[in-house]
Amino acid sequence: KNQVEQSPQSLIILEGKNCTLQCNYTVSPFSNLRWYKQDTGRGPVSLTIMTFSENTKSNGRYTATLDADTKQSSLHITASQLSDSASYICVVGGGGGNKLTFGTGTQLKVEL
Amino acid sequence: DVKVTQSSRYLVKRTGEKVFLECVQDMDHENMFWYRQDPGLGLRLIYFSYDVKMKEKGDIPEGYSVSREKKERFSLILESASTNQTSMYLCASSITGTVSYEQYFGPGTRLTVT
């Protein structure tokens, strides 16, 4: 069964600190992995997308890594800001029929 | 900028009512999708469409139907709303090819069925 698991489920950090969110997947065959940011009450917005051959991709203060061998990805947020408070969703493409499998998200709260 | 709009942000309907959720995208995307999002479950695909008048079932199509009469518009229909269809509904669109192309999401419609 295709699955995407994210950890931690929720996280609280102080403004200016760094944090790393984890994503493990069992989707096969693998096509790509994306990270989305979803603000409360809004639709998800894409941060990064990586294919099999890419092991890191950055978007400003967001850096995603991918280890296709261990089927793990991480999203590192540098110098967090209050506006980073959101749910971060890991999404894996593939698994037959080119469908997307969504993780349940990590809820991040950045506090003063 | 890609823009995906949904007809309502919040909707309250009674059990048994027929409900229409509309989605419009302005980027001439061929692919459109309807998902529902529930706490602890992640997004689940209800239906998708690769072209006008084409539709494919997703993972949880039961109780739903869709319509795509024009390329820019994709409607989700709840024939007889039930309380277990209370959820956040998200529409998305992408360019043609496979779903490996980026999907752009609308703001969502929070539907409550009482």
Key terms:
heterodimer; A: 112 residues; mainly beta; B: 114 residues; 7-stranded mixed β-sheet; 0% helix; 53% strand
Which term fits the overall shape of chain B?
A: globular
In this structure, how is the largest beta sheet of chain A organized?
Answer: 6 strands, mixed
> Main sheet of chain B?
7 strands, mixed
Distance between the termini of chain B: 37 Å
- What is the beta-strand fraction of chain B? over 45%
Gap between N and C termini of chain A: 41 Å
Structural class of chain A, by secondary structure, is mainly beta
User: Could you list the spans of chain B in which at least 5 consecutive residues all have pLDDT below 50?
Assistant: none
By DSSP, the count of extended strands of chain A is 11
* Number of E strands of chain B: 11
What string, H for helix and E for strand, traces the elements of chain B in order? EEEEEEEEEEE
Order of helices and strands of chain A: EEEEEEEEEEE
Describe this structure in words.
The complex is a heterodimer of chains A (112) and B (114). In chain A, the strands form 2 sheets. In chain A, strands 2, 4, 5, 9, 10 and 11 form a 6-stranded mixed beta sheet that branches. In chain A, strands 1-3-8-7-6 form a 5-stranded antiparallel beta sheet, with no helix packed on it. The mean pLDDT of chain A is 93. Chain A has 112 residues and is mainly beta. Chain A has strands at residues 4-7, 10-14, 19-25, 30-38, 45-51, 56-59, 62-67, 72-77, 86-94, 99-102, 106-111. Chain B is mainly beta and 114 residues long. Chain B is built from no helices and 11 strands. Chain B has strands at residues 4-6, 10-13, 19-25, 31-38, 42-49, 56-57, 64-70, 73-78, 87-94, 104-105, 109-113. In chain B, 36% of the residues are buried. The A-B interface holds A 4, 31-32, 34, 36, 41-46, 49, 51, 89, 93, 98-100, 102-105 and B 4, 9, 40-45, 58-59, 90, 92, 98-100, 102-108, 110.
